[in-house]
Amino acid sequence: MTQPYKHLTWPLFLEFIRLPAKAASMLPYALGISYAAWAFQQFSWVNSLLYGLAQLAIALFVTGFNNVQDYFKAKDHSYQQQQNIIGREHLSPLGMLSLTILMLLVSVVLGLILVMRTNLSLLVIGAIGVGIAILYTFGPIPLSRLPLGELLAGIVEGFGTFTIAVLINMQVPQPLDLVLGRRTFAFSLNLGWLLQLFIAVLPIVILNAAVMFADNIADLEQDVKNERYTLPYYLGKQRALRWYRLIPFATFVGLLLGIVTKLLPIWSLLVLATWPLVLNNTRTFTASPSKDKTFIYTIRSLLSFGGALLVTLWLGILF
After folding, report:
1. Which residues cross the membrane (predicted)?
2. Listed residue (304, 302, 310) closest to 206, CA to CA
3. Which listed residue, 106, 107, 245, 315, has the most CB atoms within 10 A of its CB?
4. Distance of CA 108 to the CA centre of its chain
């Protein structure tokens, strides 16, 4: 007789969506709306709230959908039934898939409302982001099985989220715009504005990529069993760890670049105080890479550095 599926409890849901990682996903959003207020003196409560909910929904979808796809695509039976939360807790795979699709629909609806409140360029950006989120673990060759995760995490989650958060707060003239006519369309992009945002958020781009890099290092052996060949597989574990040790240096060089070019407030020098913590977290992870025990340290680095940067942006706004 087939054992009935368990009901999804709140603790299991929080594990399914990997709650600590959601804080990391929402950080670029918080930095983006704050940067719009500091650098451009523009802020919309309505747009910021709508995008915050949409970003949270898509972040929940990405993690949940990844878990579902990892369950269906698992080559290692032991992983599928004992490590993946769906198999381990005997949850309904189709029920969990339906839940993730609901999260996606919520994000899409909120995104369309934002498009109507801003301009069509947001529709294009959002469609690209949603497409990458789906194809990351879906399709004949999921992006998660290629050495692209770190690049996508840094550019899409770090830079992309930050850029949208700034854009939805900008009033006319908007730095990114798309207008459709009956037979023509007009697209405009302020490249200086885009470069400014990239330099300002560069440390967060690096740290977002670092979270994915650490995740792939910790999962390397299991990923190979499931035929998932990520960047650490091609680098080799020891070389990947050597690269990972360089991340604190790259992050703080990026911070100083933003301050020197005055694209971050002078208050951001206070973020340098997080250097010992980020360095120690990096050493702790590389000494014994583990998903269960030390992976959390890379998220702590992102939240500590990003949280301090967020505070300095608000110091810049207030003073």
Report:
1. 52-72, 93-114, 120-139, 151-172, 192-214, 246-275, 295-318
2. 302
3. 107
4. 17
